[in-house]
Automatic annotation (TrEMBL):
It comes from the Bacteria. InterPro entries: ADH-like_C (IPR013149), ADH-like_N (IPR013154), ER (IPR020843), GroES-like_sf (IPR011032), NAD(P)-bd_dom_sf (IPR036291), Quinone_OxRdtase_PIG3 (IPR014189). The keyword Secreted does not apply. SMART domains: PKS_ER. This is NAD(P)H-quinone oxidoreductase. Keywords: NADP, Oxidoreductase. It comes from Mucilaginibacter panaciglaebae.
Amino acid sequence: MKAIVITQPGAPDVLQIAERPIPHYGPDEVLVKVTAAGINRPDIFQRKGNYPPPPGAPQDIPGLEIAGTIVEAGNNVKRWKVGDKVCALVTGGGYAEFCNVPESQCLPVPKGLNFVEAASLPETFFTVWSNVFDRGKLQPGESLLIHGGSSGIGATATQMAKALGSKVYVTAGSDEKCVFCKSQGADEVINYRTQDFVIEIDRMTGEKGVDVILDMVGGSYTQRNLKVLAEEGRLVMINTMEGKNVEIDLSIVMLKRLHITGSTLRPRSVEFKAAIADSLEKNIWPLLASGKIKPVVNAVFPAHRAADAHILMESSGHTGKIVLSFDL
Ligand SMILES: NC(=O)c1ccc[n+]([C@@H]2O[C@H](COP(=O)([O-])OP(=O)(O)OC[C@H]3O[C@@H](n4cnc5c(N)ncnc54)[C@H](OP(=O)(O)O)[C@@H]3O)[C@@H](O)[C@H]2O)c1
């Protein structure tokens, strides 16, 4: 099969097409003929050598999400059969013509969506469900602040939180990105390059603060996040793009009874991911089928142009998701 491999850690041009054997699949796995594969920021970190894949995952083929058709199924597979169209969360190896995946990490392609749209879903939908709703315990009627509101994660979090009855505030790095965030349903948008989010959230919430923050920035945002959390508020970290070592005033945690948490999805067990898949299929897949939640694909690149897709993501010029197609 053809695969896009990381030939060595480095710039986007280290991504090259190579011939690889079609992967083996286990008794609880299916083999998917990949039509489209989503791109995520962690793929960039992996390409640069800063995000090693967990043991057992393909070491040099990136890709955390795919959509395509099941072509073979292991002996223990119960739900799926050859010919089924699925999208799936994978631990790596998504940038390839074939990918093996535990059957429990597959979900049906939502009604009305094509493979490119379906491939844009798993990584951000699993991450947002797990962090905003499971860890952050966001409830209907509560408020959510999302940093990086125009990212793939940000657009997903905005749509899900709005669909489930929360008020959504986002930060983004340009006026154009703020307009995009509004189009995703955000109630209030803050251009962090021209506005101070602490002042704006104080003003917008009448100094009450927000109930949950989804943060991928870390660094100097951390103390400011604690400032704008409401009493009993929850700060959920999913990355630290500005920096992981920070100084915070812990008294604010005690005074407002705050919770600081976070997680990384990729190294978690198959059972953990299966439980998220169940929740998504029950709570979110009907909203995708009805069009209440929509995939946001900003750009599609043929697989052999994976390097260009990474250049676009690293420029942060995109809004929403970037997808590779093996079918152009
Ligand atoms: N923990 C997990 O399990 C998990 C899983 C998936 C993704 N993630 C993380 O979630 C984040 C979003 O992922 P994604 O794939 O949706 O990313 P993405 O679409 O590439 O978006 C990232 C956005 O973050 C904003 N940003 C803010 N501060 C930044 C900084 N210091 N450096 C670079 N960008 C910055 C940029 O928009 P502005 O122009 O508005 O600044 C950029 O467009 C990433 O950090 C990723 O690593 C975590």
